[in-house]
Amino acid sequence: MKIAVIGTGYVGLVSGVCFSDFGHEVVCVDKDSRKIEMLEKGKVPIYEPGLDRLMERNVETGRLSFTIDLNAAIDGSEAVFIAVGTPTRRGDGHADLTYVMAAAEEIAKAAKDYVVIVTKSTVPVGTNRKVAEVVRAANPDLDFDVASNPEFLREGAAIDDFMKPDRVVVGVETDRAAAVMASIYRPLYLREFPIITTDLESAEMTKYAANAFLATKITFINEIAALCEKVGADVKQVARGMGLDNRIGNKFLHAGPGYGGSCFPKDTKALARTAQEYASPIQLVETVIKVNEEVKRRMVDKLLDLCDGSFNGKCVAVLGVTFKPNTDDMRDAPALTIVPALVGGGSTVRVCDPQGRREGEALLPSVSWEDDPYAAADGADLVVILTEWNEFRALDLSALAKRMRTPRLGDLRNVYTAEDAQKAGFQAYVSIGRADLIPG
Ligand code: UDX
């Protein structure tokens, strides 16, 4: 089957590459000719483990290609996936659908035969019907269906999530569209991964509900962590005790410096906004959004306590600035709140992150960059672990402490314990939801 994918951002590229690996003929389209040139040379514009090799393999077989020519891509395609950006619109917090609708119109004008127009971008409930209206207006004679096929890919694990999904959700209106979608996902169906077929609105809602639920779960454990600190409990033990209850589950119960990334912040805001517009506000999600901001600010207070109440004149090494490990993405990363607070308070900040520098240089001015965590800690008064990259999980803490002027550790991902820190010679240590080690 021939498939076109519009947009070679994170979702579009991963989907296009994986669909070609299923055996389909896939053409990925983007308006950005530099991006297409890069892809044609075999270079992947994003950091995603394993994507380059999978892309190379499928380009070699001739199943995967890249173009700026939308007409050629759509010619003969039975399905066209819209995977363009839906950023949060300034002012009202809504998802900005300009790019989705522009793509729908272009597809309508380019298509000649029956085609299923599938939205992969995360879009508010009701968008697929609007896409259908735009297509009908642009090309009244076109025989087409729309489908909603939200993605549930985690950055850093996207290929596995695509190839071995917990489920695939497909929203359709006709049997014909359902049949096309079923043949696209046939390799997964054969391996008995659940494929859920729903109406359009339910598919759109599933994505938002799932992400808002996960953001809520993280925020819940973050608030429990704050209380654990006050009552002398250990949030790691609490999370384990909770998570072994199958109804709760042990995933997404890691307390930390607040969720970030390209999905949770944007999707929770868009869901809250839609709910308000339908006069059915989801107060729980509105609170989660607010609390997550407070969690990030609470991290600054924690570090301030660790530094005797002032950042002024301190030298701080920050290990990890991306919103989570195995990505170069810094969107809504807690580092964007915490690092400016350190700099604003008068600290000199050195950052070490295996992939964050490319985006981070523009977003975090006035910091310097080090490739080596030990070099970053040289003469420092505080080391902060902000992202749990594997490189920072197995540090030689004694060696780190020896290089510092004042050995203090802010472990905002609970990678170590107060005992580890004390043994290694740290004079002060804070983590999340557990006993801290602050002298005096
Ligand atoms: C998420 C969803 O998991 C995915 O299904 C969706 O389609 C896109 O959004 P992603 O943003 O890549 O994926 O990362 P994820 O691993 O879900 O983490 C999101 C944020 O939550 C990160 O900032 C992470 O550090 C934080 N997090 C996650 C926690 O603080 N604690 C946890 O227990 C889990």
From TrEMBL:
The keyword NAD applies. NAD(+) binds at D30, K35, T86, T122, E155, K266, R331. It is an enzyme of class 1 (oxidoreductase). GO terms for molecular function: NAD binding; UDP-glucose 6-dehydrogenase activity. Its EC number is 1.1.1.22. Keywords: NAD, Oxidoreductase. GO terms for biological process: polysaccharide biosynthetic process; UDP-glucuronate biosynthetic process. It catalyses: UDP-alpha-D-glucose + 2 NAD(+) + H2O = UDP-alpha-D-glucuronate + 2 NADH + 3 H(+). Pathway: Nucleotide-sugar biosynthesis; UDP-alpha-D-glucuronate biosynthesis; UDP-alpha-D-glucuronate from UDP-alpha-D-glucose: step 1/1. Substrate binds at F152, L153, R154, E155, K207, F252, L253, H254, A255, G256, G260, K324. The active site is at C263. Residues 317-418 form the UDP-glucose/GDP-mannose dehydrogenase C-terminal domain. The keyword Oxidoreductase applies. NCBIfam families: NDP-sugDHase. Belongs to the UDP-glucose/GDP-mannose dehydrogenase family. PANTHER family: UDP-GLUCOSE 6-DEHYDROGENASE TUAD (PTHR43750). This is UDP-glucose 6-dehydrogenase. It comes from Citreimonas salinaria. The lineage of its organism: Bacteria, Pseudomonadati, Pseudomonadota, Alphaproteobacteria, Rhodobacterales.
